[in-house]
Design goal:
- The protein contains three helices and eight strands.
- By secondary structure, it is α+β, with helices and mostly antiparallel strands.
- The chain has a single domain, classed as Roll (Pnp Oxidase, Chain A), CATH 2.30.110.
- A six-stranded antiparallel barrel has the order 2-3-4-7-6-5.
- It is globular.
- 21% of the residues are buried.
């Protein structure tokens, strides 16, 4: 029986994929329960940066709590995909010079809410993998 093929992506491949995309998901604990939220992001100096307004993401950053950030891509036709995971503390960016630089980026939030705060995910590690299941039989459970 054929098996799916997968391999680990090196750090450069992970950063390249992160840099090519701009919508991902940030995960953290809200109380005792995990929550995963979509965010528009940019890769800045090798780190993920996103904007937010007041709320749970800002609170996590103010406490420098660890978060996970994930972005992926799937090709349904060729049955291939990849996933990149970044883990580290969320940090509120407050340096005036850095904020001036970030405000020049095309980092536009999709939600119709002002998102004045910039959050960076400090990298405690970036990992990724690519998978191909092209030789696997299709299974439809619908």
């Amino acid at each position: 029986m054929p098996h799916a093929q997968w391999h680990i992506l090196d750090a450069d491949e992970c950063l390249s994929l992160l840099d090519q995309h701009h919508l991902g998901r940030v995960a953290f604990l809200e109380g005792a329960l995990p929550i995963i939220l979509p965010v528009n992001y940019a890769l800045v100096d090798g780190l993920v940066v996103f904007r937010t307004d007041a709320g749970s993401k800002l609170e996590v950053a103010l406490r420098r709590q660890p978060v996970a950030f994930e972005v992926d891509g799937i090709d349904d036709v060729n049955r291939t995909g990849w996933s990149v995971l970044v883990r580290g503390p969320a940090e509120l960016i407050s340096d005036a010079d850095e904020l001036t630089r970030l405000r020049r980026l095309p980092l536009v939030a999709w939600a119709p809410v002002a998102k004045p705060h910039y959050i960076r995910i400090g990298s405690a590690g970036v990992t990724g993998r690519r998978i191909s299941a092209a030789d696997q039989p299709s299974v439809w459970l619908g």
